Structure formats: structure tokens, C-alpha cells
Amino acid sequence: MSKTILIADDSRFSRNLIMNILHREGFQVFFEASDGAIAVALYKKKSPDIVLLDLTMPTLNGLDALRRIIEFDPSAKVIICSAMGQKGLIVDAIKSGAKDFIVKPYFNDLGPAIRKLFS
């Protein structure tokens, strides 16, 4: 698949893990951000097809980054990928414009969630 995916997570290990999972699923093109502010800037510059955002990041957290991305592009396809799966956070993310919320570890859920946004 030639769709572009922006992966925003402060953990290099998590970003690499996500890329490996998505490579196995057939996705090819990735942009990486280590915090929410970089994710917003990259979104504005590169216009990726999908954004995967962690919630807990320095400089700008994932929920605030989501809101800024949606403010810039209301049709943005953003999936929150976080270890923090509390119901309130999930509701806030969906109300703020996220298309999905996947709780880590997400080994089996990530590929299908992304494919769903492309269908």
C-alpha cells in the first residue's frame, strides 16, 4: 500500500514496533514524530493519509495534538494508540475527532483499524 502514515510516539521503541507491524501488513511510507508539536508540524507539511498518536508525549500531548490537527484539517484520519485506555480518555479522543482508539499492546488491532479507514 502506498498510503502515508505519521507515527507520533515519544518512545523510539514504540515507533519502531508500530512500523514493523505495519510493514508486515503491507504499509510502506512513514513519517515519525517524537512529540505532539512535531506531529502537528509534520501533518501540516506532509498531509499523511493516517496519523497514529500516542497520548502521553512531551511538549504537546496526543489529545492536544489531535485537536490541532483536526482544527487544521477536519477530515484528518487520526487513530489514538495508547496504553491509557480509560473510558474518559477514549470518549474525549473520539469527541475531539479521532476515528479510532487502540489500546496498547495493539499487535492484532492496528492493521485492521487502518484498513477500515481506507475502505
UniProtKB/TrEMBL annotation:
Pfam families documented for this protein: Response_reg (PF00072)
Q: Do the record's keywords include Phosphoprotein?
A: yes
Keywords noted in UniProt:
Phosphoprotein
- PROSITE patterns registered for this protein in UniProt: RESPONSE_REGULATORY
Signal peptide residue numbers: none
Q: 4-aspartylphosphate-modified residues are where?
A: D54
Q: Gene3D superfamilies in the record, alphabetically?
A: 3.40.50.2300
Q: Where is the Response regulatory domain?
A: 4-119
Q: Which InterPro entries does the record associate with it? A: CheY-like_superfamily, Sig_transdc_resp-reg_receiver, ST_Response_Regulator
This protein's name: Chemotaxis protein CheY
Q: Which organism is it from?
A: Neobacillus rhizosphaerae
Taxon lineage = Bacteria, Bacillati, Bacillota, Bacilli, Bacillales
Its gene? cheY_3
